[in-house]
Fold this sequence. Notes:
By secondary structure, the chain is α+β, with helices and mostly antiparallel strands. It has helices spanning about 80-95, 105-125; strands spanning about 1-10, 20, 25-30, 35-40, 40-50, 55-65, 70-75, 130-135. A hairpin with a 2-residue loop joins strand 2 (about 20) and strand 3.
Amino acid sequence: MELLTISPKRKQIINIPHYLLINGQLLGVMKGEPINIQLPAGNYEVTIRSIYKYIESTIAVRVGDNESKKVVFSDREKFWNWLFNLDFVLWIIKRFITIPEPWDSVYEIVSNGFFAIWLLRIWIIRKRYFKLEIA
């Protein structure tokens, strides 16, 4: 049996669980820690699927005799995460401080516009949401 290790590229502040599938079969839920799997030599399709439906990525992995492989994954959302964190902070501030018109309306339009663009982008990249690499 050969070793296949699947791990996140970097430690996340909040560990969102992900489903792990090999050849379409659900093996379990990952919570940010590396997973080691003993497999016979062969070709496998490793899929990382978000807890949120339809968001996933798949990579083909060839595990040879007497070799171990490591699959590393990360999400493609670094820019959007920063943008939403900033928007969340502004939203909290807005609950305590009244923003004068027209800036209140401008903020709402920009914030809702970014959210709509993000939803469209997620739907477009839903089958390749995670960046998977063989290390």
